Amino acid sequence: MANITAAMVKDLREKTGAGMMDCKNALNETQGDIEAAVDWLRKKGLSKAAKKSGRVAAEGLVALATDGTKGVVVEVNSETDFVARNDDFQKLAANIAKVVLTSGTTDPEALKSASYPEGGNVGDAVANAIATIGENMTVRRAASLSVSAGVVGSYVHNAITSGLGKIGVIVALESNGQADALSSLARLIALHIAAAAPLAMDASGLDPAVLEREKNVLREKNLGKPENVLEKIVESGLKSYYKEVCLLDQPSIHAEHQNKTIAQVIKEADKAAGAPVNLKGFVRFALGEGIEKQESDFAAEVAAAVSGQA
User: pLDDT grade, residue 88 (50/70/90)?
Assistant: First the structure.
């Protein structure tokens, strides 16, 4: 039997995009012949991943996983919404969220090397799914929150199954209060965040560039006014802007909290929880946000397929 080295496996994996174990098996079957191993993988349908890696993956799922005082949200992308309804893809996304929760790894590159529940690592699992399902897939991003005492709650919008959907939110509440009351409050706030899409918890968390742009807009809308008047207008305009984009300043979307800000809702929850409640953070992922999607010409694609160019 040929001596199969790690370098040979790495080389074959880079050529084909196939999983680590598949590459090792291919090299064993072909006595270490790289080109023959490439053909072996192609015949098995395992070298598709590399060919598809350049396609834009802007669909997919947002997956959540929580465990009491910690929670994570992960975006796993595919090329089409159809794949998001595939049981295997759903299982992949849910498992990756579990890996992030248990490992604490949120960097997509580092996550590739993390152990996958069904063997191998996350990178292998994604590559194998690409080969099996036939679309490019990526773990785009992941985030986590934790508290020393309290709860991390969650909400999934447009859920297709438990913990999987198009918008995912996790909310961290720090408190020594009653768990049931904290869980209910966390879900209520998470639902609000899903709908209202705040940019930050308060003004201090806003990107300075975003604030400066808002100030410039306010100034340009009021050109010609005296400087002292203009500054007051900008200051007033920013207060209104904070109510739109800062979570604690936003009016709650829930009817039972009409005319109350999220900060007021949290403060009033102290009594029900039996202890002070502090909002430590939140994360909101909306599927595909910020990805530039490619516009396709369906007629051209059909013509290319017929001519054998696709």
Answer: very high
State whether 26 and 104 are in the same domain: no
Cα gap 89→83, rounded to integer Å:
7
Cβ–Cβ under 8 Å, residues 203 and 243: no
Task: Tell me the three state secondary structure of residue 109.
Answer: helix
Got the DSSP string for 1-52? -----HHHHHHHHHHH---HHHHHHHHHHTTT-HHHHHHHHHHTT--HHHHH
Same domain flag for 221 and 101: no
CA 184 to chain centre: 23
Alpha-carbon gap, residue 178 to 194, rounded angstroms: 24
The reply to whether 108 and 191 lie within a common domain is yes
pTM: 0.74
CA distance 169 to 189: 9
Which pLDDT score is estimated for 229?
87
Provide the number of structural domains found in the chain: 3
Domain that holds residue 48: 6-52
Conformation bin of residue 163: beta by default, left when phi > 0, alpha when psi is -120 to 50: left
Exposed (0-12), middle (13-18) or buried (19+): which is 283, by Cβ within 10 Å?
buried
